[in-house]
Amino acid sequence: MTTSRTERALRLTVLVGESDGWHHRPVYTEIVHRAHAAGLAGASVFRGIEGFGASSMIHTQRLLSLSEDLPVAVVIVDTEEKVRAFLPLIEELTGDSPVVLDACELVRRGEPEEPR
Predict the structure, then answer these.
(1) By three-state DSSP, how is residue 58 classified?
(2) According to the model, what pLDDT value does residue 65 have?
């Protein structure tokens, strides 16, 4: 029988615009590739349907206001040590974009139950 266990972790969320680029590549793509190269547990990119940032301009996917710069969130969860070590690797990519760190718990499943 398998069991679940939890461990402390840190969630990194980087909020960027869909059209933000880095050397002819989307910033969110570059962050994901750097996270992979750094050996982090995983990264996911979520495309927003509406939002605004430092420019105070609202971007939306509604039909009448087609935007090509929708908000994008890159979310990475791993140990605090690994996430904090990763921050300097993306500093040049984030500029004035919000970077959020949240303490969280990571649920690990599939660990074999210890014999009694």
Answers:
(1) coil
(2) 52
Taking a C-beta distance cutoff of 8 angstroms, is the pair 18, 97 a contact? no
**pTM flag (> 0.85):** no
Listed in sequence order, the DSSP H helices in the chain are: 27-37, 80-94
Distance CA 40, CA 42 (A): 6
Cα gap 61→2, rounded to integer Å: 43
- Closest by CA position to 26, among listed 17, 38, 14: 17
Mean of per-residue pLDDT scores for the chain: 86
Q: How far apart are CA 14 and CA 71, in angstroms?
A: 10
Contacts of 59 (CB under 8 A, 6+ apart): 17, 50, 51, 52, 67, 69, 70, 71
